[in-house]
Design a protein that fits this description.
Blueprint: H1 3-33, H2 40-65, H3 67-83, H4 86-104
Length: 105
């Protein structure tokens, strides 16, 4: 077995291990939540969680990138509010960032 074949199979093993851990985490979450009484307070917290995760991911990247990223976020939010389409918001936000970087960077 050559080095590239060894690296290939090692890579496959690593990907399969990561997929297994991801699946175990998801199944564990379903198992745990199936045993917890969902109160109105917990329900509100769980419904707010996706937005909190998105904000905690996007804002540090935007702060590191600069004002053009905030314009892109603003464009995406505006399009999302107007159209209620994730895909349109994604295209509008990315399009505005690409155009601004093309002309101002």
């Amino acid at each position: 077995m050559t080095v590239s074949q060894t690296n290939f199979w090692l890579g496959i093993a690593v990907v399969l291990a990561m997929a297994s851990v991801t699946q175990a985490t998801r199944l564990g979450g379903y198992w745990i939540m199936g045993r917890i009484e969902v109160t109105p307070r917990l329900d509100r917290a769980l419904k707010a969680l996706p937005g909190a995760i998105i904000i905690s991911t996007i804002i540090p990247a935007a702060l590191a990138t600069g004002p053009i990223a905030f314009v892109g976020i603003g464009a995406a939010v505006t399009i999302m509010v107007a159209c209620r389409s994730d895909f349109a918001a994604l295209l509008g936000g990315l399009g505005s960032v690409i155009a601004l970087r093309l002309f101002f960077s």
